[in-house]
Amino acid sequence: MSEDIDVSLLPVPTDTALLKSEDWVPSVNFNERRATVNLCGSGAVQTACVKIDMLLLHYTATPTNDYALQLLTTAEGGVSSHYLVDGCGRIIQMVAEKYRAWHAGVAEWAGETDINSCSIGIEIQNQGYALERVPPYGEAQMAAVTELCADIVERNKIKLHRVLGHSDVAPHRKQDPGAHFDWSLLAKRGVGHWLSPEECEEFAPLHLNEVSLCELQRKLVAIGYGLEVTGEFDQRTEFVITAFQRHYRPFKVTGQLDQQTIELVDQLLDEIKA
Questions:
Q1: Could you tell me the residue ranges of all domains in the chain?
Q2: What is the pLDDT along the chain (274 residues), one digit of tens a residue?
Q3: Is 123 a catalytic residue?
Q4: According to a count of CB atoms within 10 Å of the terminal CB, is the N or C end of the chain lower?
Q5: Do residues 29 and 1 lie in contact, with contact meaning Cβ atoms separated by under 8 Å?
Q6: d(Cα 257, Cα 241) in Å, to the nearest integer?
Q7: Among 76, 112, 123, 201, the one annotated catalytic
């Protein structure tokens, strides 16, 4: 928490024109952004600096919007995000973008472990895997999420490959925003990558040799996933494959390797490098 700050006295942020004054519900869970090492500089030289260059999407895993707000704004909840989009499409801001909200937890992307300092977090009201199956996101809700994401990405010049889900940066412990999240809708607005995979009837598992698996792991690391190149299909690799499929092939999430998954990894890496 930012010490000696009465959040009731904080001014309504002017980060986005989408926010209404009554939809500013300040959280006590925030602090100053810290310098991160993967954002600035060129070539082999990296300079630590404070910069926002990632958008991270979550679901709340709560039964109601009120409960989500309580968690995200009170000291007892201990977490926060910059924005919350409720089931009706209402956009609520809880932390000004210039501050570090507490939404990513233990996470890693492209070698950076302080994801909170380089990202803006959006929580989306959805019970998630608290239920047996993640409920679908509503049309009005997805429309609001898309508008907010497009606004944030444009203002902060966030690159397509830095629009991510919580499960991308924390594949060992998170599943949100889940396989029902419509990444393709965001991509139509120029937010994030979408690979348009074709639905197949069969997804025969592949068992790669050590050399081929090392190559695949290196490609996943180049994309940004936190992974060691071991040449083994270990638990961490399975978690990363599951997260990748959940984001880029949500209709078939197995956590196992198959030809289409490998082709999608290559396609995404080529698009990032382009």
A1: 7-188, 210-273
A2: 555 668 878 889 999 999 988 999 999 999 999 988 765 544 455 667 889 999 999 999 999 999 999 999 999 999 999 999 999 999 999 999 999 999 999 999 999 999 999 999 999 999 987 666 677 899 999 999 999 999 999 999 999 999 999 999 999 999 999 999 999 999 999 999 999 988 876 788 888 999 999 999 999 999 999 999 999 999 999 999 999 999 999 999 999 999 999 999 999 999 999 8
A3: yes
A4: C
A5: yes
A6: 7
A7: 123
Distant-in-sequence, close-in-space partners of 133: CB < 8 Å, separation ≥ 6: none
Query: Is 116 in contact with 100 (CB distance < 8 Å)?
Result: yes
The angle that helices 210-223 and 235-248 make with each other, rounded to 10 degrees, is 50
Q: Is the peptide bond before 26 cis (omega within 30 degrees of 0)?
A: no
- Residue 26's identity, in one-letter code, is P
Ranges of beta strands (E only) in the chain are 30-32, 36-40, 47-49, 54-59, 83-85, 91-93, 99-101, 119-124, 163-165
What's the CATH code, domain 210-273?
1.10.101.10
**Beta-sheet pairing, 83-85 with 91-93:** antiparallel
What is the b/e burial string over 242-252, where b = at least 16 CB atoms within 10 angstroms of the residue's CB? bbbbbbbbbee
Nearest CA-CA partner of 68 in 60, 78, 58, 76: 60
User: Which residues have CB under 8 Å from 202's CB, separation 6+?
Assistant: none
DSSP string, 78-101: ----SEEE-TT--EEE-S-TTEEE
Structure-block tokens of residue 42: 């060129």
Q: Are 167 and 107 spatial neighbours (Cβ–Cβ below 8 Å)?
A: no
